[in-house]
Design a protein that fits this description.
Layout: H1 23-47, E1 49-53, H2 55-64, E2 75-78, H3 86-89, H4 96-99, E3 106-111, H5 112-115, H6 119-127, E4 130-133, H7 148-156, E5 185-186, E6 194-195, E7 207-210, E8 216-218, H8 230-237, E9 243-250, H9 252-255, E10 272-277, H10 283-300, H11 313-317, H12 319-342, E11 367-369, E12 376-378
Parallel strand pairs: 1-10, 2-7, 2-9, 3-4, 3-7
Antiparallel strand pairs: 5-6, 8-12, 9-10, 11-12
Helix pairs in contact: 7-8, 8-12, 10-12
């Protein structure tokens, strides 16, 4: 076993289908997620003023997904990112009965350089359903095509996913795909190894939460940065198209303000904390035309026999593929902006904030005050 391996099952991982991880793993995951949610809920409601909008509607969505066998598609929730504590404290607004049921709780994407610094931390976050995700600013293994993104796509879909081997990419930092290589684990660096949660039937059509801004962004008027394209891959490539529910968070930027002084690691309170859960999108109306164009592109590339989440170079870097991802991300951002507006925030002052090139002029630092919108930005946490 590699030193960084995290094993979720003592069973033979080459036998499909596997129904669920081992009992010790399920107990550990329930304990980690439940206690984390309890601490978050205690902090929110015990020390702060909390307002939650659309909670009943969101709980109805989760209740319809409780029976794994009856799920027809995955669920993506997407929100702004305003503090290092957004996840887990936003889930402290959910009743605790949801926290102790990992099969109906979110999978998240967590920064490898923070959550996976060592095996102990990695085990904690993996049992808390956080996938190791490299950020390009801190790792040569980061980017849109790192193995964690296909794993998230498969979690939103339904296995088994084993398919013929595809041609390797010319990217020197590409690492083997878990299914095309014949294994049921995935690696993010070529040396670490994690059991793929998507091999388990209990994780079919899972719920994945994503912060597409991909860094902490604190603006006094709660403006948004552009959305990176990982969310576009989840929407375009998962089968069938997942449900998408936009959210907006306000108040966590006062819990962990970027200009806080010593001790920086301690959350501040009391604050006014608000979470708004939007409505499930009509995904066919919102993204159906883009999905149709993507599927046509895949057919033209004759890439139907690739493993789910595996792409040819044209599907990675071709102009049409890139344009589709840009447009999907823009539409997702527009939906989050609608939820933001429901909390009383004004429209954006600059129509170019949704474009990646608008933010390209920012300094290449970990923490800084943006010269684009005067926000506080943290790309380290």
């Amino acid at each position: 076993m590699a030193s960084d391996e995290i094993d979720m099952s003592k069973s033979n991982s080459n036998k499909l289908p596997l129904q669920q991880p081992s009992l010790p793993w399920r107990m550990t995951s329930s304990l980690v997620m439940g206690l984390t949610a309890a601490l978050s809920r205690g902090f929110l409601y015990g020390l702060n003023t909390v307002e939650v909008f659309g909670l009943d509607r969101f709980l109805e969505v989760l209740d319809t997904r409780k029976d794994v066998e009856k799920r027809q598609r995955g669920l993506i929730t997407v929100s702004n990112h305003i503090s290092v504590l957004d996840d887990p404290i936003i889930w402290g607004t959910l009743p605790l009965r949801y926290a102790f049921n990992p099969s109906n709780h979110r999978w998240g994407l967590g920064a490898h350089d923070i959550c996976y610094k060592n095996k102990l931390l990695g085990s904690f976050f993996y049992s808390g359903q956080v996938l190791p995700t490299h950020r390009s600013q801190h790792s040569p293994h980061g980017g849109l095509f790192q193995p964690t993104i296909p794993e998230a796509i498969r979690l939103l879909s339904s296995g088994p996913f084993d398919t013929p081997v595809s041609e390797p990419s010319g990217d020197s930092h590409d690492v083997p795909d878990p299914f095309t290589s014949g294994n049921l684990t995935f690696t993010t660096t070529g040396t670490d190894r994690y059991v793929s949660p998507s091999i388990y039937a209990q994780n079919r059509h899972s719920w994945v939460h994503i912060f597409p801004e991909a860094c902490v962004h604190q603006h006094p008027k709660m403006f948004l940065r552009y959305f990176k394209w990982g969310v576009s891959r989840l929407i375009l490539e998962s089968e069938p198209m997942p449900d998408v529910l936009p959210m907006f968070v306000d108040g966590a930027q006062r819990v962990m303000p970027e200009d806080r002084t010593f001790p920086r690691f301690l959350p501040r309170f009391p604050v006014r904390f608000r979470v708004a859960f939007g409505e499930l999108l009509d995904t066919e109306k919102t993204f159906g035309d883009l999905r149709a164009r993507w599927q046509d592109l895949v057919r033209r590339e004759k890439a139907r026999m690739l493993a789910m989440g595996d792409l040819t170079d044209e599907l990675k870097y071709g102009k049409e593929a890139v344009d589709l991802r840009i447009e999907v991300a823009r539409r997702v951002r527009d939906e989050v902006m609608k939820v933001r507006k429901s909390l009383g925030y004004p429209d954006e002052e600059d129509p170019g904030y949704e474009l990646a090139e608008t933010w390209a002029k920012e300094p290449g630092k970990d923490r800084f005050k943006s010269n684009v919108d005067d926000s506080m930005v943290n790309k380290r946490e």
